[in-house]
Amino acid sequence: LPFSIPNSTEIAANESLKNLPIFNELDIKLLYPIKSTTNKLFGILVLGEKKSKAKFSIDDIDLMNTIVFEVSVSIERIKLQEELFLEKIENERLADLNEMKSFFVSSVSHDLKTPLTSFKMFAEILKSSKNITNEKFNQYLEIIEGESNRLTRLIDNVLNYSKIERGIKEY
C-alpha cells in the first residue's frame, strides 16, 4: 500500500504522512516508493488530489501498484543492462591490453634474439677459422662486445619498464 494522508483513499493505507505538513502544503495525497527487489529505493511516485476530488479507489491503488512495480522492474533491467555494457567495455579493454602485452613480448623476444644470433655466429666463425688474422679477430670481438652491450641495454630497459610498472622507479 502507498503512503497517504488521512481520508484520501477508500481503503486503509499507511497514513504516516499526516504528521508532515509539507505534504499538505504541496497537496500530496499518495506517495509510492519505487524500490528494487532488494529494497533499494530508486525513486518516489507522488500523486496529488484527483481532478474529480474523489478518494483514490482500490482500483486506482491497484493500478498504481502495478505501474510502480513495472517501473521498478524496468529500472532494474536498465541497471543490469548498464552493468553488462560496462562489463563488456572492460572485457574489450582487457583484451586490447592482452594483445598489446603479446605484441610487447614478441617484440622483446625478437630484439633479444638478434644479439644472441650475432654472438653465436661470430663465436662459430672464431672457433672454426684456423687462419684468421688478428685484425679480423679483433673486429669480431668488437662486434661481440657491441652486441653484448646492446643486449645488456635491452635487458635493462625491460627490467626498468617492469620497475616503473610496479611503481618502484619513475620514468
- Distinct helical segment count: 3
Radius of gyration: 38 Å
| SSE topology string | EHEEHH
Low-confidence stretches: none
Helix content: 55-70%
Going by helix content, strand content and strand pairing, the class is mainly alpha
Please give the number of β-strands: 3
Q: What is the residue-mean pLDDT, rounded to a whole number?
A: 84
What does this entry look like structurally?
The protein has 171 residues and is mainly alpha-helical. It contains three helices and three strands, in the order βαββαα. The protein has helices at residues 21-25, 58-128, 134-166; strands at 3-4, 28-35, 41-48. The chain has a three-stranded antiparallel beta sheet with strand order 1-2-3. It is rod-shaped, with a radius of gyration of 38 Å.
Short description:
With 171 residues, the protein is mainly α. The protein has three helices and three strands, in the order βαββαα.
Task: Draw up the topology in text.
Layout: E1 3-4, H1 21-25, E2 28-35, E3 41-48, H2 58-128, H3 134-166
Antiparallel strand pairs: 1-2, 2-3
Helix pairs in contact: 2-3
Features:
171 residues; mainly alpha; three-stranded antiparallel beta sheet; 3 helices; 64% helix; 11% strand; rod-shaped
